[in-house]
Amino acid sequence: MKLFNKYKKCMLLVCILFIGAVIGITGCYGSNNEENAYFFPQEQTSVEYESYIYPLSSREIWQPLNLNIKKLKEFENGILYALELDQLEETDDPWDKISMGRQYLGYFYVTEIAVYRKAVETSDGFTQEQTDKMIELIEEDEEAFCADCTIVCCENGTEDIVDEDGYHAYVEASGEQISYHMYNDYVYGTKPYEKIVWEKGKGIVYYVYGAGNMLMNVMLWTEEYRDRIYSQIEEYIRQEVPEIAEYEKKLLEESEGEVSLVLNVSMKGSEDFTSKPGWYFIYVKERQGEEEQDVVCFAVNESKNKVYWYYPTENGGFFSLEEWRQSSYYSEIGW
Predict the structure, then answer these.
(1) Rounded Cα–Cα distance for residues 47 and 52 (Å)
(2) Which of 141, 101, 148 is nearest to 121 (CA)?
(3) Counting Cβ atoms within 10 Å, is residue 107 exposed (0-12), middle (13-18) or buried (19+)?
(4) Rounded to an integer, what distance in angstroms lies between the CA atom of residue 156 and that of residue 114?
(5) Using one digit for the tens of pLDDT, what is the confidence trace for 84-142?
(6) C-alpha angle 55/194/64, rounded to 5°?
(7) DSSP string, 202-216
(8) What is the distance between the alpha carbons of residues 274 and 265, in angstroms, rounded to a whole number?
(9) Contacts of 199 by beta carbon, 8 Å cutoff, 6+ apart
């Protein structure tokens, strides 16, 4: 009987250790039994975005653009994908194209609880040799492969890690959105930056990769994401610039309701000034019937913690609100 009880205890210990090992594995890599709620649905092979591209031709290009989602192989704990953008529509300028490898968002290893990204090794994109290498690395040692990747989506977020060159990389979770951020403390020059916004049930809803000197910028967004951000930006600018509401009230009273004030939010800068990826422009206009007249323009960053008066000049175009309030343009408007 003692021997039998000892045997039962040993078997119980073995079961506990086995279950613990399984939990440990799925805790790190997830299970392929369920899809990742923030990645694209498995049956989806492409998605259309609105896009802003600033290629090496130094010409702003705004056009719809497809992101192709190619499933490469399923594994026990995840699925390997390759995400690639369509090339731009052909123009007379050979530099009007997505270059420097920005067309290839990378290899994405998707588990139930996290998304790991591995960049392409060359600007040639997803070569068969490189893809075979990725598959072999996962099959040989999945844990080592994931450790060598960048986590770009994780429901619990990740710490802000800064490398020796001053680059930050972290994942931030907020409600049904998860955002990956990469940037450098040095904000000038050619330092690259990247942001990926994932939304539950929808995959990527916003993506930007660029550099401080506008060297080969790529920005993508869904219409739903844009509309939501525009609404937030308008609410924020009204809060930061109370003169808008005061002028609006004055205008309606003096015109007996015939003239109103409208705010048009846009990602586009004016014809005299290049757009800034990640910034939004608020064009304040007077409207009477179908006619509109410009009053003033502001610029707000996507973090909604900086507001500038936007007035293109030879020496720049962004001024503080204090500079605006002290300018002749402010008094001429009658604010």
Answers:
(1) 16
(2) 101
(3) buried
(4) 9
(5) 999 998 888 999 999 999 999 999 999 999 999 999 998 889 999 999 999 999 999 99
(6) 50
(7) TEEEEEEEEETT-TT
(8) 16
(9) 38, 176, 177, 178, 205, 225
How far, in Å, CA of 19 to CA of 38, rounded?
27
Contact 220, 51 (CB under 8 A): yes
Number of residues that this document lists for the chain: 335
**SS3 label, residue 187:** coil
Q: How many CB atoms lie within 10 A of CB 140?
A: 9
Query: What is the layout of strands, in order, in the sheet containing 279-288?
Result: 260-266, 279-288, 291-301, 307-313, 316-319
Q: How far apart are CA 46 and CA 326, in angstroms?
A: 50
Q: Which two tokens stand for residue 132?
A: 């075979």
Contact 72, 135 (CB under 8 A): yes
CA–CA gap between residue 182 and residue 5 (Å, rounded): 57
Q: In the structure encoding, which two tokens stand for residue 84, read together? A: 């690639």
pTM higher than 0.90, yes or no? Answer: no
